Amino acid sequence: MAYIHLFLLFLRPMERTDDHFRKVISHAREYGYIFASSEIYDGLSAVYDYAHNGVELKRNIREYWWRSMVNLHQNIVGIDAAILMHPTTWKASGHVDAFNDPLIDNKDSKKRYRADVLVEDHAEKIFQKAQKEIEKARKRFGDSFDEEQFTTTNPRVVRYLQERKTILERLAKSLENEDLADVKALIEELGISDPETGSKNWTEVRQFNLMFGTKLGASAESAMNLYLRPETAQGIFTNFLNIQKSGRMRIPFGIAQTGKAFRNEIVARQFIFRMREFEQMEMQFFVRPGEELEWYEHWKKERLHWHLSLGMGEENYRFHDHEKLAHYANAATDIEFNFPFGFKELEGIHSRTDFDLKAHEEFSGKKLQFFDPEINESYIPYVVETSIGLDRMFLAVISNALQEETLEDNSQRTVMKIPAILTPVKAAVLPLIKRDGLPEIAQKIIETLQWDYNVVYDDKDAVGRRYRRQDAIGTPYCITVDHQTLEDNTVTVRDRDTMQQERIEITALEAKFREAFSYKKWLSKA
Ligand code: GAP
């Protein structure tokens, strides 16, 4: 324990480590962000509950997305489709036949893995070796370092990058041809072992459908087999014409939705990164055929700007363009975030062609076309989608926010530097002591602010400890009512990040908060 404490003392704020990740998970539990689902029964694997602070942060992330995608775009409207859909939906969308992950079991450890992930992780290790060589050379050559030249001429780096490319290309080809025997052969040729035990005793690779089934109906004989939706997108596609007509929408236009999705993930791990029940925030943008790639580039830029507006560090994002495209896509990229376990997908942006609407047209026998008055033609629109996991965004926010700081007096503080617009609590109002009329003034301040902001009252413990408690939750401001308040109606406002205090009039609080928590101010950066 003492060792852990010492270690945290020297932990740089943005360092991504297993220890940091462990700390994020336990902090999330201790400060009312996330609990394991049905914890009293020992939990349910990869299913989580959001606690009192977690639910506020989640709502705020959703709101930040909704305002940006729907309110700030006159040509995008929202929808809230049902989780249960007619089962033919999933036949048309390809999920019944193709929403599979290739899985492999280790015969010794009895652990189950995604075969493609084992190969990708192996390729990533080779890539990391190349990166190490590049970093070493960067240090050696300093300002005169030419990364491109080094990467294309240094024999070791060239070999590593070629090796990685060959592996990924072969994996892509085998998956595309559904040649699962070759995926197994690749695992064996590369000498990939069970990451937990080192055993290389593998079963064959098999396909595993990720959809959860359920039944609709009273009796076993008449019940209809349904699926819990594995993505929110299909509720948008099946409503495309309803929305287009009732909303009098003209192409290009978008439909946005947030809601639950369910996937029976084989390897559900990394806390809320890969869950079996999760929430998506998706937007399908319908465009004229042939214009989709322009829009795809447009949405790549817009979505990255949305992320950057939160100020979580430009260096923590990167695009990862897909080499292997899904059968319905003609371009796809991930916005990856630097999670504690490395850069991983946070959001997907996909140019889905007319695949979905065309398939629904075929399976339903209903026309799903748009008459474009500008070119006097009817067509099935092409679709560019942006799709982000709300829970994954939540993880990005809290893992980036949690910091251990050593202060000037050598004391420690744990602080969650969550972007202020997203914090669960906007301010804590603290009477310095519990008498002399200070609690009553604090309560009055709460009564003024609580209409627009989630604010809390706290009079337990010394004020220093109360500050630390709010730092650990991520509250941007602590408003302290003291004896001077009685004389001149001023309070101190302590800033979470700088820990500086300013004295302001109680009547100026609302204006200060309007400025600090203005969506216009935050989102206009996007
Ligand atoms: N409609 C497109 C679609 O669903 P996806 O790449 O499968 O695409 C989109 O998912 C986003 O949903 C991902 O970028 C991720 O943020 C989130 N997501 C997917 N599976 C998830 C899971 N098991 N747990 C948490 N989030 C998940």
Architecture overview:
This protein folds into 3 domains: 58-87 and 210-399, 2-Layer Sandwich (BirA Bifunctional Protein, domain 2), CATH 3.30.930.10; 104-207, no CATH class; 425-523, 3-Layer(aba) Sandwich (Rossmann fold), CATH 3.40.50.800. Helices cover 40% and strands 24% of the residues. The chain is globular and about 80 Å long. The relative contact order is 0.12. Residues 1-15 have low confidence and may be disordered.
Task: Count up the helices.
Answer: 19
- In terms of quaternary structure, what is this? single chain
**Main beta sheet, described?**
7 strands, mixed
Across the major sheet, the strand order is: 3-9-10-16-13-12-11
Q: Which key features would you list for this structure?
A:
526 residues, alpha+beta, BirA Bifunctional Protein, domain 2, Rossmann fold, 3 domains, 7-stranded mixed beta sheet, 5-stranded mixed beta sheet, globular, disordered N terminus, binds glycyl-adenosine-5'-phosphate
